[in-house]
Design a protein that fits this description.
The protein is an alpha/beta fold. It is built from 25 helices and 13 strands. Strands 6-5-13-12-11-7-10-9-8 form a nine-stranded mixed β-sheet. A four-stranded antiparallel β-sheet has the order 1-2-4-3. Strand 3 and strand 4 form a beta hairpin.
Length: 856
């Protein structure tokens, strides 16, 4: 027996060596069927395509193509399992594993046939692939067709056949691997897991012992380190306090010295600029006087050469139309050049700088107060402004900025401040801003801004420069009203609204001539715009009667539509391009015959269109008396008038949703909020909170429509005497040039004889029953092309009786037809032509009517 074992071992080794080489050889040969399947083309098979591909597309040639075709025919897509099984068998042989070839081959063949039967059920899913490969209509091949389609499916249905073939596949796979091998693998896996658990437990126990020993040592070291650190910290704190006191003292001295040098430099620059402006004004005055003297000499010479013309007695009007005055004036009677007002008309700059107090101590108080509420912050920068000082705080990582925003009341109490505003975060910076009033504010005046370099640059670059004031950092805040394009100003009484409007108007009067800017001023309070009467910039005298405001708005709409036609005729898109366009005049090539009268020329386009600014000082009073009509007029102007240079500036002291409606607010992206009493008022104006924390006296929040960010600023102050001096200077060199049509219309409304828009004749027959909404109702029908009582009720928020009476007036005048149940009434006239809104009623056909005119 001792000799048999070596012989058996030697015999086994001799047998294994050829099997290993056979395994290596089969591994190489298994590549061939894989390449044949990958590169299979049905055109290479002569019984599928005649003539076949020549040369064949298959990488293994005609043998590979025919072999693959036969495999697809027998096993369908199960043919891909053949090279896989061959490769597994080869690897087992090469690895020296004990393999019983025939037994293993039998179980693999059973697995293959069962898999073909399972694939036979997917003929619909694999139809596209079968068509591309040209393998017929059996995805499981002949084997799958026989097993599933011919036997299992008719016998036990597709579901039962699926269960049978899956069971056969599981049995075949288990037997091919070997139950003994599977059991050994499972037992080996369990043993490995048991060993891992035991090793992990031992390692955990050792680590716990080491950790306890290490913790005891660390505790001893920690206590010793704490005692040493406490001693060092106390010594370091004493040294730090001494160094901090010394550093603050040096910084305070350096800051005071720098501020003194900066103030001296500003004073020198101011004196130099003032001297330069004085020299420029003297040169300009000399040039104007020379031009006036030359014009006077020319007029005297012309009067000496021409015989005196007979005088015709005529009443001199206070105002003449601008176009007639410019066209009918001879060259020797043109008005003298318009001179802009000088800043010397304004009061001198008041003395006194802002008193900030100990800002370092305030910064320490901020940090200490927030740290008491577990909000660690660091003061990174302090910005000193004319009215408020802004502290920029950098919160520690993990601190929410909303927590700082809710600490405003606590900070007010800690700093003993009248008001504190928290801006969390500051736009464009990674810090939180805390703004508190200075102990003494520095005055911000209109003259100070007008004498600055920024105003000189903005007056040249902007179309309508709006002077607002200074921001938190002390920089001049100047906006272009044309880019807003409309501005809404709101705030409580005595918060600075009227002063803001006066500052904007003064800035415009100081930089724009009547040819560049025309004004429509609406003053329901009567006294606010009284100093601006008889300005040459005014389109009409200041409107103080709320009932006349609708007429002014309708004239503005008419002017807007007329300007759009001018822009269309000039081929431009906006007023800026219209005023910059090049006008080419064709010179006269041949002399005109004096005996032949020249042909009338086509009306030329105006060379320049002035901007029009409509200023309404108190919107709330107007909305109470004529809300729907005022709201519709403002809305239409705000939506369409930007391109033609008509802009709105509206102020109100009652910022409620009944006054600042959603329609109005949506068309006024530029907004200024002064101090308000409640948060809801701030949210109505700015769509956010903040205005309730302002300190009043010109303190404002400006919402810039370009950035959608709020900017805090101090409004520029101008006294009534300063505004009167500027207005009186302008009055002294130019007369008001009102638009006669609008002026007559407003005057006629005092007698109750006008009931149509500017440009229309009025019969004054009173057929509208004195209803002030008739014109607005007519305009609504013209715009919507819908005449119904319900549409008037919804648009003007009126009752059925009044809406029906308006429709009856239109029916009596022949504008709309009779009612047809619930359907809208028929419109009987052409709205693109003339609208006979003052036509006689059917009972007054024979009575004379007023002149019809075109509606804007």
């Amino acid at each position: 027996m001792s000799e048999a074992k070596p012989r058996t071992s030697k015999s086994t080794a001799a047998t294994e060596t050829p099997l290993r080489w056979l395994g290596y050889l089969l591994i190489v040969l298994s590549v061939f069927p894989v390449l044949s399947l990958v590169s299979y083309d049905s055109g290479d098979v002569f019984w599928i395509q005649v003539p076949r591909n020549d040369p064949p597309a298959n990488l293994i040639g005609i043998a590979g193509a025919l072999g693959t075709a036969v495999a697809y025919l027998l096993f369908g897509f199960g043919a891909w399992l053949l090279p896989a099984g061959m490769l597994i068998f080869s690897i087992r042989l090469a690895a020296g594993r004990n393999v019983r070839p025939w037994r293993w081959l039998g179980w693999c063949l059973l697995f293959l046939v069962a898999c073909c039967g399972w694939l036979q059920l997917g003929d619909n899913l694999l139809a596209g692939a079968m068509d591309r490969l040209g393998i017929g209509h059996n995805p499981g091949g002949l084997a799958g067709w026989l097993l599933m389609s011919c036997f299992l499916e008719p016998l036990i249905s597709p579901v039962g056949g699926t269960l049978v073939v899956l069971t056969l596949m599981l049995i075949a796979l288990t037997m091919a691997i070997g139950p003994h091998a599977i059991g050994e693998g499972w037992r080996d896996l369990r043993e490995r897991r048991r060993q891992w658990v035991m090793n992990r437990a031992d390692q955990t126990e050792r680590l716990e012992l080491e950790e306890r020993a290490l913790a005891r040592q660390l505790e001893r070291d920690r206590k010793a380190a704490e005692r040493e650190a406490g001693r060092l910290a106390r010594e370091a704190a004493r040294a730090a306090r001494e160094a901090e006191r010394e550093a603050r003292r040096q910084a305070r001295e350096a800051r005071e010295q720098a501020e003194a040098e900066e103030a001296a430099e500003r004073q020198r620059a101011y004196e130099a600029r003032k001297e330069q402006l004085r020299l420029e004004r003297e040169r300009e005055a000399g040039r104007v006087e020379a031009q006036r003297a030359a014009a006077g000499q020319a007029r005297a010479a012309a009067q000496a050469e021409q015989p005196p013309a007979p005088e015709t007695p005529a009443a001199r009007a206070d105002a003449t139309p601008a176009a007639a005055a410019a066209d009918n004036a001879p060259d020797d009677q043109l008005p003298s050049p318009y001179q802009l007002p000088s800043v010397d008309l304004l009061a001198p700059l008041p003395a006194g700088d802002a008193v900030y107090g100990d800002v370092d101590q305030k910064a320490d108080t901020l940090v200490k107060t927030l740290s008491e509420f577990n909000i660690p912050v660091e003061v990174t920068h302090i910005v000193k402004g004319p009215v408020v000082t802004s502290f920029e705080l950098l919160p520690a990582p993990g601190i929410r900025v909303e927590r700082i925003a809710t600490m405003a009341r606590n900070l007010e109490m800690a700093l003993k401040a009248t008001s504190i505003r928290v801006e969390a975060p500051i736009p464009g910076k990674g810090v939180v801003g805390v703004e508190m009033p200075n102990e003494k504010a520095s005055p911000v005046t209109v003259r100070e801004i007008l004498e600055g370099e920024r105003w000189a640059a903005c007056a040249r670059e902007m179309e309508l420069p709006g002077l607002l004031g200074k921001n938190v950092s002390g920089q001049d805040l100047i906006i272009d009203l044309t880019s807003m394009p409309h501005l809404l100003v709101a705030g409580a009484t005595n918060s600075g609204k009227s002063v803001c409007i006066n500052a904007i108007l003064t800035g415009l009067l100081m930089s724009r001539t009547p040819e560049q800017l025309r004004l429509v001023l609406v003053d329901p309070k009567i006294v606010e715009f009284a100093p601006y009467n008889e300005l040459p910039h005014l389109v009409v005298p200041v409107i103080t009667d709320p009932k006349k405001v609708a007429l002014g708005l309708r004239w503005a709409i008419h002017e807007m539509e007329k300007r759009y036609k001018l822009l269309n005729a000039a081929g431009v898109r906006n007023i800026s391009a219209y005023n910059r366009r090049e006008t080419i005049v064709q010179p006269e090539l041949f002399g005109a015959d004096e005996a032949v009268a020249p042909e009338p020329a086509a009306p030329a386009l105006p060379a320049r269109l002035p901007y029009i600014l409509i200023v309404i000082d108190e919107l709330a009073d107007l909305m109470l008396q004529a809300g729907p009509e005022i709201e519709n007029g403002i809305t239409r102007l705000a939506q369409l008038s930007r391109a033609v240079g008509i802009h709105l500036l509206i102020a109100t002291q009652r910022p409620s949703v009944n006054v600042i409606t959603g329609t109005i607010k949506a068309n006024f992206p530029g907004r200024i909020a002064f101090q308000v009493a409640q948060r809801v008022d701030s949210r109505t104006i700015l769509d956010g909170m903040g205005a309730e924390t302002l300190i009043g006296k010109g303190d404002m929040l400006f919402l810039n429509p370009r950035t959608s960010k709020m900017v805090r600023a101090q409004g520029a102050y101008i006294g009534d005497d300063d505004a009167k001096r500027v207005v009186n200077f302008i009055r002294g060199q130019s007369r008001p040039v009102y638009i006669k049509e609008v002026q007559d219309r407003l005057a006629a409304s005092d007698d109750g004889t006008a009931d149509s828009t500017p440009g229309e004749g009025g019969s004054g027959d009173g057929s509208d029953g004195g209803d002030e909404l008739y014109e607005a109702a007519l305009d609504l029908v013209r715009r919507t092309r819908r005449a119904s009582t319900s549409s008037l009720q919804r648009a003007f928020r009126i009752g059925y009786t009044r809406a029906a009476r308006l429709m009856d007036i239109m029916e009596a005048r022949g504008i709309v037809g009779p009612p047809h149940g619930s359907d809208p009434r028929e419109i009987l006239i052409d709205f693109d032509g003339e609208i006979p809104n003052n036509a006689a009623s059917p009972d007054e056909v024979d009575a004379p009517s007023g002149d019809a005119a075109e509606e804007p």
